[in-house]
Amino acid sequence: MKRQLEWGFLLFAVCLIFVIRFGVLEGSSGYIKVNLLSTPSLSRVRENWVPGLEGNTSAPEEPRIKLSDLADPPSPPRNSTSRNQTVNIWGAWGGLKLVLNGSNLSNEMMEGFREGINAWRGLKQYFEEGEKPKEKGAEGCPFSGSSTDNSGRLEFPCGLIVDSSATVIATVTGGTGSFKFELVGTRGVGDFRAPPIILHYGVRILGDKGTDEPVIIQNTWTRATDWGEEERCPYRDDSNKKRKQVDGLDVCIEQVGKAMTWKPQGERVSEVTKWSGVFKGPEKPKTWFPFAEGMPFAATLWVGWEGFHMTVNGKHISSFEYRKGLEPWLVNKLEVSGDVKTSSIIAAGLPTSERWEEAAVLEVFKAPPLPPKSKRLKLFIGVFSTTNNFDRRMAVRRTWMQSEEVRSSNVVVRFFVGLHKQDQVNKEMLDEAKTYGDIQLLPFVDYYDLITLKTIAICIYATKHVTADYVMKTDDDTFVRIDAVLAAIKTRRSPRSKSLLLGAVETNAGPDRGVNSKWYVSEQEYPHATYPPWAHGPGYIISNDIAKYVTKMSAKHGLQLFKLEDVAMGIWIDSYSRKQRRGIEYLNNPFFISAGCEENYTIAHYQMPRQMLCLWQELKTKGIPVCCN
Ligand SMILES: *[C@@H]1O[C@H](CO)[C@@H](O)[C@H](O)[C@H]1NC(C)=O
Ligand SMILES: *[C@@H]1O[C@H](CO)[C@@H](O)[C@H](O)[C@H]1NC(C)=O
Ligand SMILES: *[C@@H]1O[C@H](CO)[C@@H](O)[C@H](O)[C@H]1NC(C)=O
Ligand SMILES: *[C@@H]1O[C@H](CO)[C@@H](O)[C@H](O)[C@H]1NC(C)=O
Ligand SMILES: *[C@@H]1O[C@H](CO)[C@@H](O)[C@H](O)[C@H]1NC(C)=O
Ligand SMILES: *[C@@H]1O[C@H](CO)[C@@H](O)[C@H](O)[C@H]1NC(C)=O
């Protein structure tokens, strides 16, 4: 019996060696035969090296934009239905025009407006054509997509959202052993210039100028900034070995590029080593790498909260944190090219708009009509959302927007959404806005750099179109217990004599001066060492006098447009307090959870649509605020 076991083990060990030798490493040893110094292969390597910009450098002139192009939101047709609709959809648009005219806007903001004007041109016509019966089976935003024609490309007509994924099934072919996956951004309407590369995922099995070892290079490209800083996997040197994580996943798993040597243990196995020596010369260490020549693979690129993640044959390999202005909603297509034969690309979890056919259920999800200004609301809630987050908005409508206070119009909720560069998304969003009556469209492309303008838009809307005691800002991935928020407001000590900022208040935070930090703030942007008190962005509440002040000052260009909107609000409140000698009550509440969900939350952040539904269900059935995971 014992003997049998030992033989079994020996056999197993031999098999293992075969598998490793010929299964995993054989592919990668093949490429060493390519003569790197022969001219054709060198030039091919170079071609794939720093990814060349395929495109036309002598592209047409940038379309010239006049701010006056933005001047008029769609002129309201003369009859009343449409006029109401105009207020329903473009209520903050006019106010933002004043901000645009004369403010000291950053380049990023100007770019957002400029592209917004282009996007608006496409949408304007669609709007003015007016109601048309929706064709059955008309092209919308599909939930999934696939490409099986070996073209190596797949388009995403409505961008990507968190949890979207694309799986590429392909085989590495011979040659230079270089190939790339690229997530390419959207070319705006009437824009002929090269679109940004939101993720360049380059694989060099032969290594590149920096190394002979196989390497994965991740990067971005934009017209304005060219290629960004390369992120290499494995890391080039030990200095940046601080294993960074994105969404809790390693930016580059340790195993990539690690030497793999077969270390036999014990006497019996040494016989195996002898055997293996017959097949192959002396052992050389090989490095582990997820791709090898001749090897088929299934690579899944998926969208997280903080970055893109790459899984190869079911194993997480690398992650890439989103860079400024290069976010997943902007992605227009995936392109696979180089020495790789793609058999299919399958995408799932794409942003898709609800089909409007279920008219019966629909009524409950429509916003009640905007109450007249004479009605005093307890609270106005502005929800930040981006264009293609159809599912998040729908989850909010199905859950906390069903609260009694909202249905009875004591609390009014509106989404604040910019424009997308893809026409299809804007059209779907406009249809959604008309159907549900709870969306405010803003005249700029929805880059993160412009969110401070959204905060201003909320203040403008809350001042011009409703009368509310308090104004709350939140996000479309935040679950809000409206009754708990109203109860939290009631805990204030001095409602009459002071203004309010309520939420997760920070009193001692300062700017991050680390140049490589995601939250880097330069001295020029903010010279002081600490910020005035501010409250975390997923949910804070201000009293209406602050909203009025922000609205008034925005038209006079008197606001510092600091890029972090929640801190910006803190700065404005501080200047309000100084200029008008107004006392501010900073009310910190520990149940405004901005880092996720905790029991007894008043607001919970980072909630996916299915979690929102679960939280709502728990509240309804158990009556207690517990979390869902
Ligand atoms: C580059 O753009 C110019 C001007 O638009 C055009 O005439 C030319 O054919 C383009 N070249 C290529 C290679 O596309
Ligand atoms: C309102 O205007 C639209 C188009 O501008 C028109 O089709 C519709 O009949 C008008 N409605 C009324 C009530 O006049
Ligand atoms: C438009 O809004 C006003 C109140 O602002 C309301 O009285 C009127 O009925 C609305 N008209 C339509 C057609 O909904
Ligand atoms: C823009 O501002 C200038 C002065 O700063 C003013 O003369 C002009 O009327 C403003 N334009 C609009 C559309 O408000
Ligand atoms: C506009 O902002 C830049 C830096 O953001 C600053 O250098 C410049 O002085 C400002 N101009 C005005 C008119 O405020
Ligand atoms: C949540 O609230 C309940 C009731 O007030 C309390 O018994 C429980 O301890 C609270 N849980 C946490 C984690 O604070």
UniProtKB/TrEMBL annotation:
Keyword Glycosyltransferase among record annotations: yes
- Primary localization class, coarse: Golgi
Question: Keywords on this record?
Answer: Glycoprotein, Glycosyltransferase, Golgi apparatus, Manganese, Membrane, Signal-anchor, Transferase, Transmembrane, Transmembrane helix
Q: Name one GO molecular function term.
A: galactosyltransferase activity
Subcellular localization is given as:
Golgi apparatus membrane
Give, as in the UniProt entry, the pathway in which the protein acts: Protein modification; protein glycosylation
> Which ranges carry the Galectin domain?
152-348
* Keyword match Transmembrane: yes
PROSITE patterns named among the record's database cross-references: GALECTIN
Q: Which GO terms describe its biological process?
A: carbohydrate derivative biosynthetic process
Membrane topology label: Single-pass type II membrane protein
SUPFAM superfamilies, alphabetically? Concanavalin A-like lectins/glucanases (SSF49899)
Q: Do you know which Pfam families this protein is assigned to? A: Gal-bind_lectin, Galactosyl_T
Q: Where is this region: Disordered?
A: 51-84
Naming one, the record's GO cellular component terms include: Golgi membrane
Q: Which family does it belong to?
A: Belongs to the glycosyltransferase 31 family.
Name of the protein in its database record: Galectin domain-containing protein
User: Which species is this UniProt entry from?
Assistant: Riccia sorocarpa
